């Protein structure tokens, strides 16, 4: 039982090793001894609380690695080297000179500048590769044999300054660092100057374009006013000609009517006077003009009075309703 527990715990940690000191096997009888009265009162341990028993799902089997697991320190060293490489690549991408952003209405396009041009295609070349996996291993591989250390350690005393002179050794690295810093600073200053020149050119271009747009709008507005003035003058001239034509037709009709009725009117008046069709103009004027106007004025006055009474009744009803609501609120309080 202890051997099984030791192997299971080592498997969960990811390293399959086993070590146990040799011990003698206890001499036990082949069969159990009969239970006596004293054994019935003995206390037995509960296997559910035994630390040597592994708990958990028994359906999933622990798969042992086919190859020996690497050292955790080696894994940490590889992760650190990978992280440094990523940071170094990210720093190079940040320090790389970039093209300024495109102006409004334009965009950048990738162009090949190599000596030999390559054909670009959206179709990706694909190929099938097959491989044969190794046979399933029933047990893990044998760990590497590490011989026991033998012999004596030997040390050598090295005084300060014998192998490394800081002032001399650091000078090349310091010159490289200072040179790179100065070079990067000069590149940044040149980039800022170039960006300032581009901004000034863009600003001048924007001002010139704005002035041209204002001039174009002014010319369009002037042309529109001229066109509207021309259309208005043409319309006025057509109206004048139409009025002159109508006036000439009216004059001609009036002259013809006078000439035609010059001898007809006296005869008609005489016949109407003899027949009694003429009436008093004052009385007719009173009946057709004054009485309708008087009735209309009376109706208007009555309608105004009715509207005033309606408005007054509405105001009185609203004031009464508000007083009643205020009184009810006071009673409730």
UniProtKB/TrEMBL annotation:
<feature type="coiled-coil region">
    <location>
        <begin position="211"/>
        <end position="258"/>
    </location>
</feature>
<comment type="similarity">
    <text>Belongs to the flagellar radial spoke RSP3 family.</text>
</comment>
<keyword id="KW-0963">Cytoplasm</keyword>
<keyword id="KW-0969">Cilium</keyword>
<dbReference type="Pfam" id="PF06098">
    <property type="entry name" value="Radial_spoke_3"/>
</dbReference>
<keyword id="KW-0597">Phosphoprotein</keyword>
<keyword id="KW-0282">Flagellum</keyword>
<feature type="compositionally biased region" description="Basic and acidic residues">
    <location>
        <begin position="73"/>
        <end position="91"/>
    </location>
</feature>
<keyword id="KW-0175">Coiled coil</keyword>
<protein>
    <submittedName>
        <fullName>Radial spoke head 3</fullName>
    </submittedName>
</protein>
<keyword id="KW-0206">Cytoskeleton</keyword>
<keyword id="KW-0966">Cell projection</keyword>
<feature type="region of interest" description="Disordered">
    <location>
        <begin position="66"/>
        <end position="91"/>
    </location>
</feature>
<dbReference type="InterPro" id="IPR009290">
    <property type="entry name" value="Radial_spoke_3"/>
</dbReference>
<dbReference type="GO" id="GO:0005929">
    <property type="term" value="C:cilium"/>
</dbReference>
